[in-house]
Design goal:
Length: about 180
């Protein structure tokens, strides 16, 4: 599968790669034990490749349509339930929670086509995802989209203990494509 690298990750990858090269060279120069050098090089290559994998953006051709809501991100659906949501909907809605592990693609796509009618950034903590209040206490953004067929969809991106920041390009008044 072909993919590109998120532009926010390019500098992070470059700096981390440089650090891991320096670490590997220090091990080679300062440690006379060959198997430790091999192990150090292995870990340096592993962590560098992990950074490339973390910031990848695969090229995909999803099933699209005005009546469909596609998953806004990779991961595993961990919860589907009806609940009260007061920030955007002001009432009952169906919540679908998707957990992204550190091995999933950390890019979010628009689940529907339409107009961004709401955007709000919420600063917060970086608690582990399984903590019950992490979705409310962690840094997050809320994006409300009014679809072309009159429906309202909300996407909430929540930072965690590893992915500690959110970069969102959506702005109120912007047209988004699924």
């Amino acid at each position: 599968m072909k993919y590109s690298i998120q532009k926010e990750g390019r500098n992070i990858i470059a700096i981390n790669t440089l650090i891991w090269i320096i670490v590997a060279l220090l091990f080679i120069l300062l440690c006379p034990v060959v198997w430790i050098n091999v192990l150090a090089i292995f870990f340096c290559v592993f962590f560098t490749s992990f950074m490339f994998r973390f910031f990848r953006v695969p090229k995909r051709k999803p099933l699209l349509g005005d009546d469909l809501v596609i998953a806004p991100g990779d991961g595993r659906v961990v919860k589907v339930k009806e609940e009260e949501e007061m920030e955007y909907f002001g009432g009952k809605c169906i919540r679908i929670s998707i957990y992204l592990s550190c091995f999933d693609v950390h890019a979010t796509w628009a689940p529907v086509s339409g107009m961004v009618t709401y955007f709000k950034y919420h600063p917060g903590k970086y608690l582990v995802a399984w903590y019950p209040k992490s979705s409310a206490k962690n840094e997050h953004t809320t994006i409300g989209i009014h679809t072309n067929n009159g429906r309202m969809v909300m996407v909430r991106q929540i930072a965690g203990i590893i992915a500690r920041r959110i970069v969102c390009y959506a702005k109120e008044g912007m047209q988004v494509q699924q």
